[in-house]
Structure prediction request, 196 residues.
Amino acid sequence: MVKLSGISFSEVMVATDNVDARAELLLLSPSILVPCLNHGSAKVWDTLAIGEYLNEIAPKAGLLPTNAVHRAHCRSICGEMHSGFSALRASLPMNIKAHFKKFKVWSKAQLDIERVLFIWHECLSTYKGPYLFGKKPTLADAMFAPVVMRFKTYGIALDPVCQRYSDQILSMPEIKEWMAAAIAEPDDIEELEVEF
Ligand SMILES: N[C@@H](CCC(=O)N[C@@H](CS)C(=O)NCC(=O)O)C(=O)O
Prediction:
C-alpha cells in the first residue's frame, strides 16, 4: 500500500517470536502486531487504517476509486478480506518460500477460495481489469495480493480470468520485491510447513 501511495518510506523488520523482540515491537506498534505505519506524528497500526490514511495524505495516488459507488465496492471487499476468510487464513498460511504439490484443501477453506474467486470475477468483469478496479492498482489489489501468493504456494487451480489476474499481480515490481525479500529471509518458520 505504501509503495502504491508513492511516499518514501523505510521498513523495520522485527521478529515476533521472542520476548526481547516483542518488547522492541511494542515501542513501534501498540498492538504488538505488524504492520504499523509511523509517519510524522501519526502512528497507524491496522492495515485498513493504514490504507485510509495513505489515501488521505496521497489523494492523487488513486488508492481508492474516484467514483463513490466504486469506492464503496472497493472498501467492502477490502473489509471482507480484512475481517473474513478465517478458514483460508488458518489452513493456507502465507508462506512465499514454499510450494506444496497436491495440497488437500479443507472444505471450509474451499468455500473461502470460491468466494475470493467470485469477488475477483465480479470486479474484473465490472471494471474491465487488469486490476480489480480497472487500469491502476488500488487498496483492493494490495489487500488481495497475499491471497494471490497463497494460491500460488498451495497450487490452487485458477480459471483463465483469475489466472490472468494472479499473473498481473505477480508481475508487479512491488510484488516481485516483496517475494524476493521473503525468499532472502534467513529463517524458515517451522509451523508453516505443517500440513493441516
Ligand atoms: N488487524 C490487524 C492484524 C495484524 C496482524 O495480525 N498481524 C500479524 C501478521 S499479518 C502479526 O503481527 N503477527 C505476529 C504475532 O501474532 O505475534 C491488521 O490487519 O493490521
Remarks:
- Residues 16, 33-35, 46-47 surround glutathione (CB under 6 Å).
